[in-house]
Amino acid sequence: xxxxxxxxxxxxxxxxxxxxxxxxxxxxxxxxxxxxxxxxxxxxxxxxxxxxxxxxxxxxxxxxxxxxxxxxxxxxxxxxxxxxxxxxxxxxxxxxxxxxxxxxxxxxxxxxxxxxxxxxxxxxxxxxxxxxxxxxxxxxxxxxxxxxxxxxxxxxxxxxxxxxxxxxxxxxxxxxxxxxxxxxxxxxxxxxxxxxxxxxxxxxxxxxxxxxxxxxxxxxxxxxxxxxxxxx
Length: 232
What we know:
By secondary structure, the chain is α/β, with parallel strands linked by helices. Helix content is 24%, strand content 27%. It has one domain (3-230): Spore Coat Polysaccharide Biosynthesis Protein SpsA, Chain A, CATH 3.90.550. It is built from six helices and 13 strands. The chain is globular, with a radius of gyration of 17 Å.
């Protein structure tokens, strides 16, 4: 796999004062911006082209990362005057994301073995593979339900409760270009609008369950906890 998109447009409203003058993905975690952690991870696993959707304070992101040459890859940007949602952000990059590609949410960082993830995706002949893990906060997570073969059979959109299990969507995916057949024009959300429609049409969606380090750092408390882990 050579291509990826990192969702980078969020305002980071849950971060309070921390994002008053800086995009969430530019907050420094263990000495470098969140976005840099993910770009460097993707580069280590052979990614050559990365797409970034921008919205809040986009200039600071473009000035810092430029065309990506400093990281040995190519970066494409698209500015969204109004945020298009997690899946809507893909629309501008349809002509680039023409083969299997990674999706990483900008406020999620981790140390997942992307080569193993890709092997799983190919073994299952999956159309969409979601990284999932036990969530310590299922009430504030999108919950994924799977069968004994790791095939996804349902989603519980947050906010939820503990009645549907605790396997949370870690917000890292591998997607086939078939995803574009299910994207509506304009704003859309993977969990609410796109993945359920793919299930209804009998496409193969699988959950890659892992205990590797991966976490949402979209609140000050979670950000601090991840910083403590990465700084050890």
